[in-house]
Amino acid sequence: MTQRWKITVEYDGSLYAGWQFQQHDMSIQQALEEAVFAFSGESPRLSVAGRTDAGVHALGQVAHFDLERESTEKTVRDAVNAKLREQRHHGISVVTAEPVSEEFHARFGAQNRVYIYRILAARAAPPALLRNRVWHMRDRLDITAMNAGAQHLLGHHDFSSFRAAGCQANSPLRTVSLVEVTEDADAAYGAGQAISVRVEAKSFLYHQVRNIVGSLVPVGTGKWQPEKIAEILAACDRTKAAATAPAHGLYFARVDY
Amino acid sequence: MTQRWKITVEYDGSLYAGWQFQQHDMSIQQALEEAVFAFSGESPRLSVAGRTDAGVHALGQVAHFDLERESTEKTVRDAVNAKLREQRHHGISVVTAEPVSEEFHARFGAQNRVYIYRILAARAAPPALLRNRVWHMRDRLDITAMNAGAQHLLGHHDFSSFRAAGCQANSPLRTVSLVEVTEDADAAYGAGQAISVRVEAKSFLYHQVRNIVGSLVPVGTGKWQPEKIAEILAACDRTKAAATAPAHGLYFARVDY
Predict the structure, then answer these.
(1) Beta strand A135-136 pairing with A250-256
(2) For testing the chain B interface, which of A95, A184, A196 should be mutated: the one with the most B CBs within 10 Å?
């Protein structure tokens, strides 16, 4: 009897060529599918909540796959992790594995997706400990102004101004349920201003979060007024927004079903 | 005219063989001295506040050196960072450079040293994003009990029970001015219980912080009562304490002069 498994996965995106299979580079999907095969002898295809680009990290990516073999939560989690480590994929970890019904679908069943974008600002020196983990910039950012700008994005809008050219979605309409810019007190960041931008929506356009962050930063530096975000959104024109924020500051944090 | 420079340095200890010169492996001291030479053409020896072992990280290590060449804070900081990156030492970063008087001494002038030890507990899966940055364990830890145990260490004591065999200090007496165990809410840790142990003293014995953390963990799991820490301290016997906590959870956070 086939059992569907839901796995929650953490990964360091700087070590892989993104989620999806690549001809010449190791992807997170390939590493996980090889580990599932090494443990079970079966070759199920993984379906994922959100394909991430090279460099993008995950704290709580979700995927599902079907196994003929009977197993337990603990065995699936620990065996896949052990096989990943045998193959030296130390940058991928299965945080939990849960049996789910055959109606569960990691991508189509997602009701809410949470992304966090991390910035290390107000710091002249490049980060050593957070290299490839944050977007580093020398300027200090005004969190209050960024939050004021961000609130214009809340709700149901045409997000064409924040949509990458390669986006394959049928519609540019999306509903953003939360955008929040906070300053963190985490001592482990080291010197500088540690900022997180949290964005939540049922689904996102391609590069939507990175494009939003890219346009909130000039609001934080004072180059743009917060109201500029409303103007960019209303224009429905990608050329009105700022450049895309780099991949390595982005974390796919959580999916709710 | 010779100018003494104080530099504050952040580094990822997992990429280097510790602070001090090694015959066959790259040390942080060697990488920095080569970068200073590449920038200035001079070969000053660096003096450091605290030599760290392989694997140990720094958020605010302090070192000093003398240069004949005149320069500015910005030039020293940015030039050394640029030379480090040319040599692909991305794991080391000079956060600040300041001219100081010739009386300044990074090691002998230190009035207070701050270490932070990071633990990722209550988590079955190995950390992907914090690999080599935290001590990972499956058990949940009782922070209240750990803090109760830690308070026995405050003040002026013979710390022989927490002193490594190779320690070259003349005396086992040290004055611990702060020990604090906190649970962090940092979302970037991912799943699990994120714990920091902060320890402050004017100076430390060899492995003192790692040995203290090693003995606070069994208090956190409930294997030992908090009062056991007082017994261990009073015994002045290394064999009474638990094993040394691993190097890769330790951060040299700050030095005050």
Answers:
(1) unpaired
(2) A95
Residue span of the structural domain in which B75 resides: 3-100
Paired tokens of A118: 């991390």
Of the three residues A100, A131, A164, the one that is the final residue of a domain is A100
Whether A250 maps to a domain, the answer reads yes
Chain A positions in Cβ-Cβ contact with residue B93 (cut-off 8 Å):
125-128
CB contact under 8 A, A10 and B93: no
A106 is a domain residue: no
* Interface test mutation site (partner B, options A186, A200, A250, max chain B beta carbons within 10 A): A186
Residues A29, A122 within the same domain = no
Classify residue A105: in a domain, yes or no: no
Q: What CATH number is attached to the domain comprising B47?
A: 3.30.70.580
Number of domains making up chain A? 2
Parallel, antiparallel, or unpaired for β B135-136 and B155-158?
unpaired
Please choose, from the candidates B71, B102, B95, the residue with its C-alpha nearest in 3D space to the C-alpha of residue B254: B95
For residues B129 and B186, membership in a common domain is answered with yes
Beta bridge partners of A99: A5
Token pair in block for residue A199: 């964005």
pLDDT band (50, 70, 90) for residue B166: confident
Q: Which of A53, A78, A139, A158 is catalytic?
A: A53
Q: Which residues of A touch B (CB under 8 A)?
A: 8, 10-12, 57, 59-60, 74, 77-78, 81, 85, 90-96, 116, 118, 123-129, 131, 133, 184, 186-188, 190-191, 196, 251, 253
The number of beta carbons lying within 10 Å of the beta carbon of residue B81 is 22
pLDDT digits (tens, 9 = 90+) for B120-164: 999 999 999 999 999 999 999 999 999 999 999 999 999 999 999
Q: What are phi and psi of B182, to 5 degrees?
A: -130, 155
Instruction: Specify the range with the lowest mean pLDDT, choosing from A52-56, B9-13, B22-26, B229-233.
Output: B22-26
Q: What is the CATH number of the domain that holds A119?
A: 3.30.70.660
Same domain, B96 and B130: no
Kindly provide the ipTM of the predicted complex, given to two decimals.
Answer: 0.93
What digits encode the pLDDT tens for the residues B181-233?
Answer: 999 876 556 789 999 999 999 999 999 999 999 999 999 999 999 999 999 99
